[in-house]
Amino acid sequence: MSRDDDGGSYLDAPRILHPPPGPRSRELLAEQGKWETDAVSYSHYFPMAVRSARGATVEDVDGNRYIDWVAGISVLNLGHRHPRLVAALAQQSREVWHALELPTEARTHFLKELTDALPGSLRRHARIFFTVTGGDAVETAVQLADFAKGRHGTIAFSGAYHGVHGGAVHLTSGSRYHTTTPFAGSHVVRVPFPDPYRPVLGADAGAAGTIAYLEHLLNDPASGADQVSAILVEPILGEGGYVVPPDDFLPALREFCDRHDLLLIADEVQTGLGRTGKMWAVEHGGVTPDILCIAKTIGGGIPLSVVAYRADLVPELPRGFHIGTYRGNPLALAVGTEVLRVLREGDLLARTARRGAAVVERFRAMGERHPSIGNVRGKGFMIGVEFVQNRATRLPWGDRAKAMRSALFARGVLMHTAGAWDQVLRFMAPLVIEDELLERGLAAFEDSLLTLDGAAGESPRGRAIPHAPPVAGWRPPGAPGLGHPTPPGTPGPHPIPGADDEPE
């Protein structure tokens, strides 16, 4: 079990010394507001100023400590300041920080480590394209697919989030840039994502309805989809609500693309690098995409993104095909190499799958006691808890999910929303979170449910709502003794598997 002195989390979290935002946080929030655009959002969801972060915890400038179930929106699968990543960054900082596209040891080490870790037939048989952000990677992937097929059109899905970067080349003068970077991503054919909880096209019975609709789009000359080059898909919807499609969806999509000479682009920006209990989410379906988009965790918190594509996809790309000054930054590459090594060593992925399945069951058990929870789904540490006003009608309840986010924040747990109506709370804790912190977070989650249910006078099935079984060492904010960690080795109720395992 990781401790404070060896790179682990602050083990006394959650610790609320001053109801957030505390006085110093208020000062810094006000200072930020004087100068920074009012378009920022996260400081409204989590009104605090950060002083430091370790493992799966964050400390604000007022001394409050929070359990982090946001992880930078899945950027920090290995947590804040993982010791091996810190060491890799320190070593690289003494050598070179910026090198354009010139080879460095950091670059070649990363390329070898990444190609060895790719899924299926991409492993050791892929070409790599460095980009900077997730949106940049997706734009490059679409551009690459259009170039390879000589067609300009992409099938994408409802609920999809693929970033907001795109089309800036049209503001750049110079025909040579327009020739090598002809982004034509405006031609998008949108198809319903197969959501078993909110089924369209029969998604509750598998992928057959979705595939039949795709067949219609490509076979009907009047469908408007006659110039499609690729299908772009998130293996599990991210911002769309952590929706897990039917098991046969990705295999059926792969077969459909092969049959119609389309390229399959998998956006694993949020699902990749262990988040779902496997290195890549496509591995759950035994599928290999033609193009893979990678970002977030790959840089361990330093901006880095990558497009990996089949080596035989195009014979040659023109020089300057989608350029950028910061692509393949040596600092990020050194950290990224260590990210891949940590994920591939030991049993961290298997532990994530095992612990994630247990967390799903814990949330589902809460759903039995609290009717505002309509659905719980997920793989690994990518879990969605959907709130509804009525279980029969499944009417989304975004206000309840957002109220839960605020209640959890007050209790020292960071958790964020997703979904079209912000009706889903998503569990995306670092994979290395200590089990005692996981237990305390789950206790805070149910305590928040009880508080909100009580405020609304709710009682499931007309009976009193039972309190969750106590978790040793955890007390609600304001109770005596808050901030004292669970004694080592003390089990909570229904302990998460792997409690005695050493974090990677």
Report on the architecture of this protein.
The protein has 504 residues and is α/β, with parallel strands linked by helices. It has 2 domains: 190 residues, Aspartate Aminotransferase, domain 1 (Alpha-Beta Complex); 260 residues, 3-Layer(aba) Sandwich (Aspartate Aminotransferase, domain 2), CATH 3.40.640. Strand 11 and strand 12 form a beta hairpin. Helix 4 packs antiparallel against helix 10 and helix 5 packs parallel to helix 10. The N terminus and C terminus are likely disordered.
Labels describing this entry:
2 domains, globular, disordered N terminus, seven-stranded mixed sheet, 16 strands, Aspartate Aminotransferase, domain 1, 504 residues, alpha/beta, five-stranded antiparallel sheet, Aspartate Aminotransferase, domain 2, disordered C terminus
Chain-wise SSE layout:
Elements: H1 23-35, H2 42-45, E1 50-54, E2 57-60, E3 65-68, H3 71-74, H4 83-93, H5 105-117, E4 126-131, H6 134-149, E5 154-157, H7 175-180, E6 188-191, H8 208-219, E7 230-233, H9 249-259, E8 263-267, E9 291-294, E10 305-310, H10 330-344, H11 348-369, E11 373-379, E12 382-390, E13 395-396, H12 398-410, E14 413-414, E15 416-418, E16 424-427, H13 435-456
Helix pairs in contact: 4-10, 5-10, 8-9, 12-13
